[in-house]
Amino acid sequence: MDKTSPSASQAVADIPAGATLAVGGFGLCGIPSTLIAALLDQGADRLSVVSNNCGVDDWGLGLLLSAGRIRKMTSSYVGENKEFVRQYLAGELDVELLPQGTLAESLRAGGLGIPAYFTPAGVGTPIAEGKETRVIDGREYLLEHALTADFALVRAAKGDRHGNLVFHASARNFNPVAAMAGRVTVAEVEQLVEPGELDPDEIHLPGVFVQRVVVVPEDQRDKRVEKRTVTGNGAV
Question: Which UniProt keywords apply (predicted)?
């Protein structure tokens, strides 16, 4: 089965207004920037997005946010985006914050068909308000529900036409669990190989979780640096 799409715009063309998206990446590392840009051009709005963070003001999910396309963010970190803060304080954006491990596990659970699970993270904090708790072996736990999405957008270093994906180093981050949680998962890849070329032991995410694969053109592989620290002598 050849899952490749001819372009990013065609791969996201059927994402409707009001859809829920699971989006991979951590900061600006491993984000599906090509698919995000295509979705910005496509015009879908009122999106609910599950992602570790919302990019920065002028890149990544920050582009959709600045265009007023996102109505709700479910994240674990939101500190690098001034527009995010402005919209939240103005009541224009709904925000659900989760501990980072809870966010990852909830996406993974959604992909595996596990409806809910107990975790100690967040017990005794505002995160626990309104949630069921249970004492197990003398320790209190919160019941957290799985997260699923209508669509997932992820980025991988390498993929084949069957949707098997390989991620590079820390760019793997939330991409596998986001992909697992999507009912329709679209993966942008930097290198496309033929089925059988990937060593089975090399594959980080099997193609059963991926429905569409898009090759990122070389001139669109812009990998932004979120924070750059410079020493006093000008060296990075």
Answer: Transferase
